[in-house]
């Protein structure tokens, strides 16, 4: 009687995970023919631990090999294949691998900034491990919650504030003058590690607005 064999379904790497992997690939000098550190190296092990903490998939979908050092090493070899157009490395790279490489290969300072943002958000709790269910909560409209993006108009990286935030704050203050509190919604979709926000959320009913 023939036995049955089962294989765990591989969980695709997310864009955030790929950014961290490419950042490591560049930092260790693997780009342009440099050597890729082995699965037992300090750098690979540290990234493996970070990815497991990032937990881009709900725990019930992870097995004991989830984002282990061997898998991280193979991902760097996928990036080697993307870089060399398949001439070297592992050929089973994903569309995300190719997209992340294309987005950052000509702007490595931006890659470093994106990777650092992911690490900081994970460290301060802004980016939390994925959950099996969608989580929604109200958060205050405050400047420290404002999403920023990195720009380098003169070659020097700096954080820029979204211009529309000034309008949101003005709207919040205007509504507060009418006795109406404005917050915003924070959504963490199931299986995601990065929250998304609405610009504003009016808690009170519209009938409280006094029309003159």
Category by helix and strand content: alpha+beta
Q: C-alpha Rg, in Å? A: 22 Å
> What count of helical segments does DSSP give?
6
Strand content: 5-15%
What is the CA-CA span between the terminal residues? 84 Å
Enumerate the spans where pLDDT stays under 50 for 5 or more consecutive residues: 1-8, 149-157
Secondary structure: number of strands: 6
The level of helicity is 25-40%
User: Order of helices and strands, N to C?
Assistant: HHHHHEEEHEEE
Q: Provide the residue-averaged pLDDT.
A: 80
Biggest sheet details: 4 strands, antiparallel
Key attributes of the depicted protein:
single chain; 212 residues; alpha+beta; 2 domains; 4-stranded antiparallel beta sheet; two-stranded antiparallel ribbon; 6 helices; 38% helix; disordered N terminus
How would you portray this structure in words?
- This protein has 212 residues and is of the alpha+beta class.
- The chain has two domains: 15-124, no CATH class; 135-208, no CATH class.
- Helix content is 38%, strand content 12%.
- The chain has six helices and six strands, in the order αααααβββαβββ.
- It has helices at 15-27, 42-54, 69-83, 95-104, 108-124, 164-176, and strands at residues 135-140, 148-151, 158-161, 182-188, 196-197, 201-202.
- Strands 1, 4, 5 and 6 form a four-stranded antiparallel beta sheet that branches. It has a two-stranded antiparallel ribbon with strand order 2-3.
- Helix 2 packs across helix 3 (69-83).
- The longest helix has 17 residues, at 108-124.
- The radius of gyration is 22 Å and the shape is elongated.
- It starts with 14 loop residues before the first helix and ends in a 10-residue tail after the last strand.
- 22% of the residues are buried.
- The model is unreliable at 1-8 and 149-157 (pLDDT under 50).
């Amino acid at each position: 009687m023939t036995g049955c064999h089962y294989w765990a379904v591989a969980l695709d790497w997310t864009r955030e995970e790929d950014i961290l992997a490419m950042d490591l690939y560049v930092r260790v000098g693997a780009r342009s023919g440099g050597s890729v550190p082995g699965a037992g190296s300090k750098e690979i092990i540290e990234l493996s631990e970070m990815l497991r903490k990032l937990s881009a998939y709900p725990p019930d979908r992870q097995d004991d090999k989830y984002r282990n050092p061997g898998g991280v090493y193979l991902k760097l070899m996928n990036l080697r294949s993307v870089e060399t157009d398949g001439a070297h490395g592992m050929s089973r790279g994903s569309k995300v691998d190719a997209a992340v490489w294309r987005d950052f290969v000509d702007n490595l300072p931006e890659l470093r900034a994106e990777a650092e943002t992911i690490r900081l958000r994970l460290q301060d709790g802004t980016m939390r491990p994925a959950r099996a269910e969608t989580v929604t909560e109200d958060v205050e409209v405050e400047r420290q919650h404002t999403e920023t993006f990195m720009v380098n108009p003169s070659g020097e990286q700096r954080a820029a504030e979204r211009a529309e935030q000034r309008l949101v704050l003005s709207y919040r203050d205007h509504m507060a003058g009418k006795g109406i509190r404005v917050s915003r919604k924070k959504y963490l979709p199931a299986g995601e590690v990065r929250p998304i926000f609405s610009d504003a959320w009016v808690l009170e009913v519209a009938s409280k607005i006094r029309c003159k």
